């Protein structure tokens, strides 16, 4: 869902002093026929130059040079912001979907609709495409994502004598029998609220949405509070571990010791699970449990290749990004060399992901589970200009669970604090009518 015009004006109004929107300037003409240009791309994906080299071999006049940067919130974004403020920066930058509105706050991104991106829109997964559209513009090319499923140990469920759950209600019903084995059904991260956000998204929540006169927040709606109550009880009943976040050293040790029965997580968790000692052949993948309402799946994570505002060649940068993310050779190369999450291409998941997996006991889990999951997403979910800050606020509140607090109280408090931060940034926001 795109941002309405009024919301776009609010975003532009918060730009860093001295910056203006490149999208109000004349369109930058394409390079002249025969002219040789070099595009720069800052990204934290590993070995992305090997992907660009495939393009470079076929496009001698448009060469792409990739520079590695730290992950976005680990320093990569600050590097981009500093470069933008100085009037420089790369042609392309890796920007998480949820961070696009934040870059719009500083007029940091090119509206690709001005360069003909609409003719390529049908190449992309529809839900992911909705995550990069704002204010009647398109501000990033989806690069990868993380549809959610459930990784599980069939042997542990069998020992407990319970079925693999297909609903969250059933999940809560079978968890005590698993706990009697000395095993947790899952882990709940108190300091990574993005996973909780994925649960709320799946249940049908839409925390923020744009209107003609600003933003409407509905973070503490009954859908989200019900999800919070559900996990408050699961934690109180000791059904999940909160002391070992998924993929932390403690979690890896517990999983290797057969103390974790399942994990509701994104598609990119498959590669991380392969690091569990002695785990090959023990795990399988099933669809995520469903709430009584909402959707079959959600997504955790996901990034874009965004054209930054100071690019001298925005059209060519866009064309490279479309090739990289939708062509079979681009997608296959990103899987092989960069280990990307789920492909954003509407009709191509990558040749390697169509094959059975030895680690998962010969299961074709990508085509069986994650490909259908991409069609079972919440299409109304929007990101907002302070998404990461909201998740940080919520995570701070969740940590209070360890000292007697509740997830419910943390959600209510995070909604109010998010409103305050919006207003401090000069953005218009109001609570939804409930």
Automatic annotation (TrEMBL):
It comes from the Bacteria. It holds the Pfam family SBP_bac_1. Keywords: Cell membrane, Lipoprotein, Membrane, Palmitate, Signal. SUPFAM superfamilies: Periplasmic binding protein-like II. The keyword Nucleotide-binding does not apply. PANTHER family: ARABINOSE-BINDING PROTEIN-RELATED (PTHR43649), POLYGALACTURONAN_RHAMNOGALACTURONAN-BINDING PROTEIN YTCQ (PTHR43649:SF33). This is Sugar ABC transporter substrate-binding protein.
């Amino acid at each position: 869902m795109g941002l309405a015009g009024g919301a776009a004006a609010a975003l532009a109004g918060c730009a860093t002093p001295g910056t203006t929107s490149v999208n109000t300037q004349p369109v930058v003409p394409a390079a002249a026929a025969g002219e040789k240009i070099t595009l720069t791309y800052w990204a934290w994906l590993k070995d992305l130059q090997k992907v660009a080299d495939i393009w470079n071999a076929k496009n001698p006049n448009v060469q792409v040079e990739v520079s590695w940067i730290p992950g976005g919130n680990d320093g990569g974004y600050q590097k981009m912001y500093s470069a933008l403020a100085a009037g420089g920066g790369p042609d392309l930058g890796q920007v998480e979907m949820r961070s696009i509105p934040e870059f719009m706050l500083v007029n940091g991104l090119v509206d690709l609709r001005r360069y003909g991106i609409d003719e390529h829109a049908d190449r992309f997964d529809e839900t992911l495409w909705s995550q990069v559209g704002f204010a009647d513009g398109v501000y990033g090319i989806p690069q990868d994502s993380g549809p959610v499923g459930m990784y599980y140990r069939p042997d542990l469920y069998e020992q407990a004598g319970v079925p693999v759950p297909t609903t969250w209600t059933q999940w809560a019903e079978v968890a005590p029998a698993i706990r009697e084995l000395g095993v947790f059904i899952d882990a709940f991260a108190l300091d990574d609220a993005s996973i909780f956000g994925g649960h709320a998204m799946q249940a049908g929540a839409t925390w923020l949405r744009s209107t003609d006169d600003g933003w409407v927040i509905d973070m503490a709606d009954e859908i989200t509070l019900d999800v919070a109550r559900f996990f408050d009880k699961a934690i109180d009943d000791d059904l999940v571990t909160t002391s070992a976040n998924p993929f932390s050293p403690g979690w890896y040790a517990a999983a290797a010791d057969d103390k974790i029965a399942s994990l509701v997580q994104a598609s990119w968790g498959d590669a991380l699970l392969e690091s569990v000692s002695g785990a090959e052949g023990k795990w399988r993948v099933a669809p995520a449990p469903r709430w009584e309402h909402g959707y079959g799946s959600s997504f955790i994570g996901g990034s874009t290749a965004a054209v930054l505002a100071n690019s001298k060649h925005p059209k060519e940068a866009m064309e490279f990004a479309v090739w990289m993310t939708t062509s079979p050779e681009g997608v296959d190369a990103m899987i092989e060399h960069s280990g990307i999450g789920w492909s954003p291409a509407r009709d191509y998941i990558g040749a390697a992901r169509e094959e059975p997996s030895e680690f998962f006991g010969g299961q074709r889990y990508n085509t069986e589970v994650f490909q259908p999951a991409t069609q079972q997403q919440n299409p109304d979910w929007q990101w907002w200009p302070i998404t990461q800050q909201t998740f940080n606020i919520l995570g701070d509140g969740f940590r209070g669970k360890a000292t007697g607090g509740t997830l419910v109280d943390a959600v209510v408090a995070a909604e109010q604090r998010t409103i305050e931060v919006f207003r401090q940034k000069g953005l218009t926001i109001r609570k939804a009518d409930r």
